[in-house]
Amino acid sequence: MNKKVEAILNEQVSKEAYSSHLYLAMASWAENEGFPGTAQWLYVQADEERMHMLKFVKYINDRGGKAVLPEIKKPPMKFAGVKSMFEEVLKHERYISDSINEIVFLCAQEKDFTTHNWVQWFVTEQIEEETNARTILDKLKLLGETNMYLFDRDIFAMRSATPDTTAGGEA
Ligand SMILES: [Fe+2]
Ligand SMILES: [Fe+2]
Predict the structure, then answer these.
(1) What CA–CA distances, in Å, run from 16 to 51, 103, 133?
(2) Which of 50, 62, 88, 162 has its CA 20 to 30 A from that of 135?
């Protein structure tokens, strides 16, 4: 496997691991603050991010590279509120989308068309991830932070209504 591509994929392993950790921290905070629906959404999201990490690990190894498991930075454990927390989620997903785009760019530059093709799944996934975060923020704007009970019930329904994309986990 191309060394530069291997290195950038391993960076992504680290970023997905941190994403999972970050959403787990948010889930835990939401649970303690009395937002069970929000917590549930974030717990599932944390699992999805771990699945993303696994996809990168397996792909690197399958292609003859060596996956490197990172040390994971401690995520923040306190958040100012549900809305600002989801603003963080959107910001983080945009950052991840940028880094996926960097992978696409490097693959083209290095003429690694196999990885270029493989990573398209993540390009599509990131569109969905950003849309989900935006939909939630729109709901929060609509309801205002005064009706958090309704929001929390709603977000719970959102997760159970959406078919679980993590189920297959096919790499
Ligand atoms: Fe991810
Ligand atoms: Fe994500």
Answers:
(1) 9, 14, 17
(2) 50
Q: In the structure encoding, which two tokens stand for residue 30, read together?
A: 């939401």
pLDDT digits (tens, 9 = 90+) for 78-104: 999 999 999 999 999 999 999 999 999
User: How far, in Å, is the centroid of ligand 2 from the Cα of 144?
Assistant: 25
Distance from Cα 101 to the centre of ligand 2, integer Å: 14
All residues with CB under 5 Å from ion ligand 2: 129
Q: Which amino acid is at 77?
A: M
CA of 132 to the centre of ligand 2 (A): 10
Position 11 pLDDT exceeds 90: yes
In Å, the largest CA–CA distance within the chain is 53
pTM comes to: 0.90
- For residue 48, which amino acid is it? E
Alpha carbon of 130 to ligand 1 centroid (Å)? 11
Which tokens is 12 given? 């992504």
Instruction: State in Å: Cα 50 to ligand 2 middle.
Output: 10
pLDDT digits (tens, 9 = 90+) for 14-46: 999 999 999 999 999 999 999 999 999 999 999
